[in-house]
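R.M. (postdoc): so does anyone remember the format we settled on? I'll just put the structure tokens first.
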């Protein structure tokens, strides 16, 4: 392969320039998102869906969503089932919930949630 005056072939120069261009675009996009990104604190919400029974246990699926602009760490979700003066409680922890992310899980109760008052809520989170 013939070399030009700088000691590199035309193919090497073109591929190097193309690589620099791609890396430059990636750096520019990261900087743009960092400067203009949503800086609102985490906004956490939890919803439940269809309860299912397996043997003598009741599974309550939930979905927690972070609709805020920042990440939430150690998100704690609490499920409480109150039936006739008795309260059954469950806790879940999600280690990491980035902005616009959704995670799912299930609470398991020994009594039918439809026979009492079920409360599922986000109890706390930490900022990274």
């Amino acid at each position: 392969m013939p070399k030009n005056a700088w000691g590199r072939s035309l193919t090497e120069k073109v591929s190097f320039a193309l690589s620099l261009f791609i890396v430059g675009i990636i750096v520019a996009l990261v900087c743009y998102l960092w400067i203009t990104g949503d800086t609102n604190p985490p906004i956490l919400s939890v919803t439940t869906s269809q309860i299912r029974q397996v043997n003598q246990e009741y599974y309550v699926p939930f979905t927690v969503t972070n609709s805020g602009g920042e990440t939430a760490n150690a998100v704690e979700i609490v499920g409480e089932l109150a039936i006739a003066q008795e309260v059954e409680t469950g806790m879940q922890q999600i280690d990491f919930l980035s902005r616009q992310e959704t995670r799912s899980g299930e609470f398991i109760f020994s009594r039918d949630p439809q026979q009492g008052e079920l409360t599922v809520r986000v109890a706390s989170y930490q900022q990274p």
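R.M.: ...and that's the designed sequence above, right after the tokens. Also worth knowing: The chain is about 20% helix and 45% strand. Residues 10-36 form the longest helix (27 residues).
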